[in-house]
């Protein structure tokens, strides 16, 4: 089975505010949409005219924005990624601490919640988590 191809798709706004999508390396393979998502869907349709396996192709987005805006978007994505990692760590700690307080120390769900800054119901869910 052949490995799915990867195509880089460049998205740029035109003077009307539409997103114009061009597939890098394939002359004439372009489309547009009101949103990036719409242009992305349509670019698959356009790509199908050039590649019969376009439905399995991997598309890499290259959204063209002003450099200062690009930096802000990159910073936001980085912060979001860090936040998700911290939230995952917090979820794991919630479960461990709730179990330790209720099973090891023998506290009630209410007291464990008081110490963890959470509701009794949250503590119950953490204790019962698989």
Structure description:
Helices cover 52% and strands 18% of the residues. It has four helices and four strands; from the N terminus they run βββαβααα. A four-stranded mixed beta sheet has the order 3-2-1-4, covered by helices on one side. A hairpin with a 6-residue loop joins β2 (19-23) and β3 (30-33).
Descriptive key words:
4-stranded mixed sheet, 4 strands, elongated
Helix and strand composition category: alpha+beta
User: What is the string of helix and strand elements?
Assistant: EEEHEHHH
Mean of residue pLDDT?
Answer: 95
Taking the alpha carbons of the first and last residues, their distance comes to: 38 Å
Unreliable sequence segments: none
As a whole number of angstroms, the C-alpha radius of gyration is 24 Å
- How is the biggest beta sheet arranged? 4 strands, mixed
Helix content: 40-55%
């Amino acid at each position: 089975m052949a490995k799915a191809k990867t195509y880089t798709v460049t998205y740029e706004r035109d003077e009307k505010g539409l997103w114009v999508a061009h597939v890098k390396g394939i002359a004439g393979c372009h489309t547009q949409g009101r949103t990036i998502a719409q242009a992305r869907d349509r670019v698959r349709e356009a790509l199908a005219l050039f590649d019969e396996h376009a439905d399995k192709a991997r598309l890499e987005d290259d959204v063209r924005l002003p450099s200062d805006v690009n930096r802000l978007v990159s910073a936001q994505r980085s912060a979001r990624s860090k936040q998700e990692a911290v939230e995952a760590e917090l979820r794991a700690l919630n479960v461990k601490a709730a179990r330790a307080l209720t099973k090891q120390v023998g506290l009630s769900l209410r007291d464990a919640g008081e110490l963890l800054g959470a509701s009794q119901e949250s503590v119950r869910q953490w204790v019962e988590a698989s």
